[in-house]
Amino acid sequence: MPQTETAQRMEDFVAYWRTLKGDEKGESQVFLDRLFQAFGHAGYKEAGAELEYRVAKQGGGKKFADLLWRPRVLIEMKKRGEKLANHYQQAFDYWLKLVPDRPRYAVLCNFDELWVYDFNQQLDEPMDRLRIEELPERYTVLNFMFEQERAPLFGNNRVDVTREAADSVAKVLNSVIARGEDRARAQRFLLQCVMAMFAEDFELIPRGFFTELADDARAGRGSSFDLFGGLFRQMNTSERARGGRFAPIPYFNGGLFRAVDPIELNRDELYLLHKAALENNWARIQPQIFGVLFQSSMDKKEQHAKGAHYTSEADIMRVVLPTIVTPFQRQIEAATTQKELRAILDELASFQVLDPACGSGNFLYVAYRELRRLEARALLRLRDLSAPGTALPPARVSIRQMHGLEYDPFGVELAKVTLTLAKELAIREMHDLLGNTGLDFDQPLPLDNLDDRIVQGDALFTPWPRVDAIVGNPPFQSKNKLQREMGAAYVKKLRAHYPDVPGRADYCVYWIRKAHDQLGSGQRAGLVGTNTIRQNDSRVGGLDYVVQHGGTITDAVGTQVWSGDAAVHVSIVNWVKGPAEGPKHLAWQVGDHRTSPWQSTELPVINSALSAGTDVTQAQKLRVNMNSGACYQGQTHGHKGFLLDGLEAGQMLSAERKNAEVIFPYLTGDELLRTSPPHPTRYVIDFQPRDVFGARAYKLPFARIEREVLPTRQAAAAEEEARNAEVLAANPKAKTNKHHRNFLNQWWALSYGRSEMIEKISSLSRYIVCSRVTKRQVFEFLDNGIRPSDGLQIFAFEDDYSFGVIQSSVHWQWLIARGGTLTARLMYTSDTVFDTFPWP
Questions:
Q1: For the segment 373-418, what is each residue's pLDDT rounded down to a tens digit?
Q2: With the CA atoms of 453, 457, 463 and 466 taken in that order, what torsion angle do they form, in degrees rounded to the nearest 10?
Q3: Is 440 a domain residue?
Q4: What is the pTM assigned to this prediction?
Q5: Which of 560, 589, 617 is the last residue of a domain?
Q6: In 3D, which of 613, 606, 679 has the Cα closest to residue 646?
Q7: What range defines the domain where residue 91 resides?
Q8: Could you read off the pLDDT of 717-773 as tens digits, one per residue?
Q9: What is the CATH number of the domain that holds 15?
Q10: Distance between CA 364 and CA 675 in Å, rounded?
Q11: How far, in whole angstroms, is CA 414 from its chain's centroid?
């Protein structure tokens, strides 16, 4: 359609809009209908949108969204003159619950302005603000409203701005470290530069002051060592300079400038730093993701802050909202007296929050910001209930109510900077919301010292401060990689400190366990974990412990694709120590992509498996199943040298007929799912039950294993022996690992040949298999001459009745409820699935 026709429709809409009074109840629906017409639709109904769409209310009941057009947009109308900043929380609440087919965008409108949000991108500010009279020139902000959807053109994408800034500063830091500067010194110096760039754009120091210093250093009008060093020393001096260049610089304090140790930057570094200061508006940068992006781009040969992932605010709010915001929001909405509201304000001012794995402080940033916004809502309610002219109490929520533990020393410093900037942004937002109330606002300077609030240490062995809520994202470290990454001594210490946590539990389970033990009655926690926290030993060590020791899960995500840098599926769990009234909210994502669809439900109780189905978490193992000798994992070859392609196998079989006694077709899980009937494409050399002398009788297969496998196993055993020597040097009584030594002692054999399984299936004409990791219900019979890989689960039955039971929907649902997961795929675990399955 010609652009002139579109522009004319926008002009017609603006002309109609000028006739409206801006009454939320009386004019919203006709306003929305005309808006749809302006974008080429016959009306909202013809486009497929719905008015007054019911949305579940946290804690029970329903609310109504003004307009929902799936999967495009949610629009929430407010009366003319209403401050839209006060209502983003409502729009986000609706958006969070609108599954499946959650709308991509959300719009707040007060008849004069349209605030457009993409909550997957940024939460605290709209992607753009559009005045109605600007529509004829700027309707592209709402491109998603056209019948043929187009990408909107936004003017306030703070994420992109933040990526650019983080990338620029990281390049300077990496350059400084690469030429030999001490890492800790370089990190502190660059963080001081970052704070100065924020300060000049927030006008805490004269605008452009730091940029001018960088320009002078580039032009040779002074050294960066002297210029930046002088600035930072003045920022740490309580008495103003009596004259000279640094006379306008106020006292910052705060700990960051306590140690000033400047660095002389070279020409290229000065260029990058000057560019970062000049071309970025640091007042628009999001501190809560700057630290993550900055940290992720350090030590990389290819700087990748522009492409790095970060935990989205929407995902952080899945913790902060139910654990901190919703309980206070209910109190504020229910309060009817000044006394009640003043009590709520007192509680907000004393409410302490801990993130025991705080990283660069993004969870604490959001928690602090939301506490400030809750305080603003309570103050507005108090104003409405007070006589005109009544003085309101001052805003008292402080960043010193935020506590963090972090193992990485640089992460600690980043978190302090993040929270320091959060305070300045919160003060500005409070001025916007409450500037006409006569409120006594806190001052941005001097900075709060957070050295006793954000502390370096291992949270699992460091005492936690007493707080009211615990939030965060503990490390995503699987049990299988824990010893390799952390070392045997650390794992032993961990097991000794937490003897009741199963040894096969994921690392994040220890945080869940410790968090629950730290909580007092009525206190809350919200943590992100790998999605295996709801399964098997990880569930037993964490969420089972929570619900068995007085915890009530109030809001959870069973599984979702994580928005952060780790390529994992996660679970999110929020709980209170004690009872909780009302329905509980459970959501889950269906698929492997960040854009995959969502589902949700309201439940009277959320079980520790974080599932909406029947709770089978306490199903017991059945002795008849355990002793049946019917369920096995396939063979683990342990080295690709045991595997042959068709040509290699054919040559060995042709060379000597007896080689068929040790060469077998070998089927993998992928081949089972990919071909029907299943067709092995490779062969495996399996000498069992022969010893090394028996294996030597098969010359070609044995020579291959001796050539390909033996050297690798010798090297692995030597490395293991060296690691064991280090462990024993530290602790002569330590238990060492003999894993690779055992493989070397049987170097001609598969790592795990599963001799019992081979003996069992050899006695059958056929046996049943499924892929151990799968999304699909695929069970097949295999000939007993085919060797199954460890990607297959084996059921040693040859009869049709047993096959019917195994491939039944009942057994499949049991697998869904009792099995493990790998990303979004189900994992068959015989001890939790088959051993507990009530065989009919």
A1: 999 999 989 998 998 888 889 889 999 999 999 998 888 998 999 9
A2: 20
A3: yes
A4: 0.77
A5: 617
A6: 679
A7: 3-145
A8: 999 999 888 888 888 888 888 989 999 999 999 999 999 999 999 999 999 999 998
A9: 3.90.1570
A10: 50
A11: 18
